[in-house]
Structure formats: structure tokens, C-alpha cells
Predict the structure.
Amino acid sequence: MQILTDLFSDYTTRTVLLGSMGIGAVSGALGCFSYLRRQSLIGDVVSHSSLLGIMVIFLVSYWLTGEGSKSLFVLIPGALASGVASLVLTRWIVDRTPVREDSGLGTMLAIFFGGGILLLRYVQRSSTVIPGRRGLKDFLFGMSASMTRDDLIMIAIIGGLSLLALLAYWRQLKVFTFDPLFSHCLGFNTRFLSLLLIVLMVNGIVVGIQCVGVILMIALLVTPAAAARQWTSSLGSMVLLSAVFGGMAGAAGSITSSLVSKLPAGPVIVLAGCVIFLFSILFAPRRGILTVKLLQLRAAEESDLDEGLAS
Amino acid sequence: MSLILWTIAIAVVTAIACSLCGALLVVRREAFVSEGLSHAVLPGIVVSFVIFRDRSSFELIVAAAASGLLMVWLVHLICRSGRVDQDAALGIVFSGLFSVGVVLSNIRLRDVHFHASCIIDGNLALAGLRSFKVGDLYLGPTAFVSMSVILVCLVAFLCVFFNSLKLTAFDESLAELVGLRPRILRLIWLSLVSVTTVAAFETAGTVLVVALMVMPPL
Amino acid sequence: MAEPRAAIDVEGLTVAYHSKPVLWDVSLEIASGVLMGLVGPNGAGKSTLLKAILGLVRPLTGRVLIQGAPLQRDRQLVGYVPQRSTIDWDFPTTVLDLVLMGTYGQLGWFGRVGRKQREAAQTALERVELQDFQSRQISELSGGQQQRAFLARAFVQDAPILFLDEPFAGVDVKTERSIVRLLHEQRDAGKTVVVVQHDLNTVGEYLDQVTLINRTIVSSGSVESAFTPELIEKAYGERLV
């Protein structure tokens, strides 16, 4: 108990904890839509691709100011741009050539992430020392431990705006996700909605990169949503629950990694998410695999009993 | 043969093996399986490295293939339950396994120079340096030998099972009806893909493996 | 009163994907208040025509008029029941929720689902005899019930033109008959109903008019004139060669 109170009184830890929870919640909520549209892997492509944008912005800021910037305020627009660019290019290829979507996405992932890695290695190994390059590789695996108040503000702004947009367009997004043709018939602007969903997903991703890094980002997007889906049969409660699960995973990860010295927060957050998912898919009421098994067993027993009484 | 020639040879063999794997993955619309595998092999690599302390051992490849297959099996289990669709299951499982790998490597391998990011970008230039010898006979760099063995296995597998694979890719239930064993075939096939993925790490790195697999068949 | 306009007027429509023509010079007029079947083999371009009419694919040439005007201006003229196999039945929503979606188009920005909308949904659910299932998750319905739930959503939307994509695929005979009865009611109330179908057996029995289609219009008109064995062979035979 003493450890926990120490933990919360420490300013840095509190920032990190708050940040991780917020990030988990935002990504969890926004991830529901990619999950339901079966676009989980698109999130993976976007998050990998954003590395290129981050590196380009870092280098540009180095050339302009003489020091590479790692502030989220400048890096996030870059991440957004290259994430969206990878999707737009995929669309372009898929519409104009016989290449199918999954292959197109895989190719874009390789090009954008490969480009990002190339630049990262260049920055790390170039003979002239580029100021600010230390810690840059944390974008791969997350760096929640180094979160600052500014980062927290940036996360709050992006997360808040995204959640507001989600609320404002809730009904349209719901119908569009479920049945795009019908939403078109209702007079909704499907082009806009599809773009909005992409932007929301990318927002969820760039926010989460801070926490778990580009490689594991997909877990923050998919795992809470998949877990939440098992518990409920309404979209509203699914999104809420997914946010709660994401926040729980974020908290669990950052607490564990601050208690155990060698543990990086990002992967622990992902593992916490996996535990929540495992529990949900096994024990959720009505849908849980074991719950269903148990109910069947009990029903079989009862019918046995009835037959026994009858004979 | 000079180092440069060996390096080129390694690159060529790796590229051929990867695009062979990729051709079938792309046909089956499973391009993302290679992406998943390239992440999911990490825990296997770490575990075998912790035990054997050898970065290019045979055990390492086997362990990595095993954890790749673990991913395939887990995804299959989750999908079969009907609760989660395949893409999402793949995402959950490979990110989870990769996390296990990163955590393990952080706990057990801090003292040695081994970090998860090592496997993200391979190093083709260095691959030619380690030589493979049987007795005193120099057979070429290790990477070349292992990649060639894998390539031979792949080609053999594809030749023997080409028709059944084609049928399985086209219509799984029909394949089952005519007495093929699509699931076993798929298992062998995916273990070959994992082995190729791991072996190609050393030369190409994870991301490029995905690129080498997915791009040529397009 | 003005001369009754055609509900749907398609003129010289050509649509291509990747420079392969899917629809070739399609001209078609569907009068108001009829029950029309859009019949053709798989890959004949039925769903592409549907999408073109809804304004979802851009044609190379030609145009589509809905009640005498291009669709963009007032999209709410068209209701739509999707093909059952294209729906993600695992989507977290209940039957009542699904039917209420039909009211979303009229709700506007800050409108809330109120008593009026709920009553409309209830009435529609009673018409398709699903009132006892309204709080069920949609995946827990049988195929026929699922189809009827979507029909209820279309009734709530209350558009003058109604499209149904393969409504009889995978439902039992009883449901098939009750759906047909509901569609006849719609037609008698003055609505235009278009049913996309590739099963030939029940066409004559259920529909007023038929359009046979395979890349282009083979024939269009009353069942007696447009659905003769020769024309059917023309529409279906070509693809077998």
C-alpha cells in the first residue's frame, strides 16, 4: 500500500499514469469503429506508416532550427499526414490496378515503415551528431515514462476533439458502420463519414504511439474493442466499455512498469489488454466460451434430471 | 568467391524464397499473415537466445517457427469460436506475442547486445561474414547456406503439393471433399513461411520481409 | 394533375470497373406504383445498376432520374433493404435499434429519438410480426426474421421507392410468402418496389413486371411479355457459352 501512495504522490508517475489511462481510453473508444468495420489491420498499417512522417518532421525541424524536435505538437501532424497518405495511396492503387486491398496495404506498410526505419537509422548513425536524436527510437516501442505535461495537453486536445466529433456524428457513424448503403439512402454523406472514421482512427493511433509505439499500436486499437464486444449488445455501451478497458490496460501497464525497473510500459500495456481480452472471451455473460459451455452443461444436466424424474 | 558476390547471392536467394511464400499468401488474401508472423516469431527468438546464447543457431530458427505457429494456432482458435473475426484476432495475437518477446528480452537480455529493434532491420552487409564450414570445407556464408536449404524445401513443397495448394486456395471445402487435408497442408505451409521469415530476418529485417513477400506477386 | 412521372428513369447508362464495362447502354423506365423484378444471372450487373441508381457509382455515360430529377437533390426518396449475406450480423445492435435507424434520416442534427419515432418503429415491428423480438440481438434471429426486421426498418424510413436486394435468399417458404404479402401492400399503397433477384422460379407468381438484365437490358415489361422462355435463355444462356 505504501508503494502505491508513493506512486501517486510522485508528479512524474502521476503524469505518466494519467497519460497512459487517457491514451488507452481514447484509443479504445475510437478503435471500436475500425473493429466493427473489420479494418483492424488498416490501423496496423497506419501506425507503422506514421513513423515516416515523424522522422521527416524531425529531420525538417533539425534542418530549420539545428535541433531535432521531439515535441508532439510538431510530430503529430507529420504522423497524421503520412498515416493518411498511406491509406490514400492504397485506395488509389486498389481503384486503378487489379491489386487487392490487403496486398496494397502490405506494400504501403513496407514502403512507409521501411522509409521511416531508414531515416531513423540515418539519424542515429550519421557522423554529425543530430541534437535531439537520443530517445527517438522510443517511437518504435513507446515512451510513456518520458511523458511531459505538454504531451498530456496535446493528448487531451486530440482525444477530446475526436470524442466530440464521435458524439456529434454518433448516429450517422453508427448507421454508416453497420450498413453504408442504407446510410447513403438516408441522405448521409458517406464520403465524409468514411473520411471522418479514417481521421478518427488516425487520431486514436497518433495519440497512442506516445504510449506503446508504432509497432504495438494495433493492440490498443483492437484488443479493448474485441474484449468489449463480448460483454454487450449495443454500440454505445461497447464504446464506453472499450474505453474503460483501454484505460485499465494503460493504468495497469504504467503502474507495473514503474514498480518493476526493467519492464517497458508499452508491451506491458498490450499484455494487460490481452489478459482483459482473454477473460472477456472466456467468461463474458452470454458470449463467453466457457460461460456458454457451462450453460449447456447445466441445461443437459437439468434435462437428464427431468428425464430421470419422468421415468 | 568474393564477399560482395556472396552478399548478392544471399540477397537473391532470400528474395526468391520470400516471393515464393508471398505468391501463395497473396492469392489466399493473407498478405497480413506474413506481417503477423514477422512480429510473432520474436518470443521464440528471445527464448532460444536466452537458452543457447547463439544468434544464428538452428535452434533459433526452430523456436521462432514454433512461436509463429503458436500465433497461427491461437488465431485459428479465436476465429473458430466465432466471437472475433480473423483480422482482429490476428492483430490481437501478434501484438500480444510480440509484447511477450519484448518483455522477455528486456528482463533476460539487458546484459547482452540484443534488442528487439535488432530484428526490425537486418544487416545484409554483415550476413556474408559468418562462414559455414563442414569440417574444413568452406560452403559459403551461413546465411547463404540456411537460406538455400529453405529455398530448396519451399520449392520441393510447392512442386509436390502445387495442385492441392491451388485447390485449397481456391475452394477449401471442395479440397476437403476430394480427400486432401487442407488443414495439415496449411500447417506445413505456414511453418515453412515462418521459417523463411526468421531466416530472412538476418539479411533483410522484419519490414523488408513483408515487402519481399507481398510485392513481387503483385 | 400532372402526367404521372416514372419513378425511376435510366437513360443510356454505361458503367465500367477498371475499364471493363459492367453495364452497357442500359435504358430502363420503372413506372410509379409497380412491383418490379430486376432479374439476371450472377455477375450480370444487377447490384451495379442498383448502386448506379442510388448514385453510388459514377457512370461513364448516361444518367438516372428519380421521380424526374437527379437523385442528389433529395436522396430520401429511396429506401433500401440489403442482401442478408452482406450484413455483419455480429454488429452490436438490437432489433428495435435496427428499426429505429430508419428514422435517423429525418432526425437532423440535434434531434433525439422520441416517442413519435418509437411509435413508428413499434407499428412497423407489428406489421412484420416481430414485436416480441424487439430487444433481441440481431444475430439471434432466424434468417426470415432478419429479413423482416430490415423490412420494418424500410417501412419506418417510409420512402416512395423501395429497393430490395435478394430478399428471398435463404429464407423459408412461409417467410417468403409473408414478405411478398408485405410488398404487395406497399405497392397497393402507391409505392414503387424493385426486387433484385437471380432465382427464376417465383418471378411470375410474385411480381407485376420484370426486367431481364445481363450487362444490358434484355427485356423489360409485364411478366407475360418480358419473361418468356426465349428471353430468359437469351439473358442466362450467353454467360454459359
Chain C touches chain A through 28 residues (CB under 8 Å).
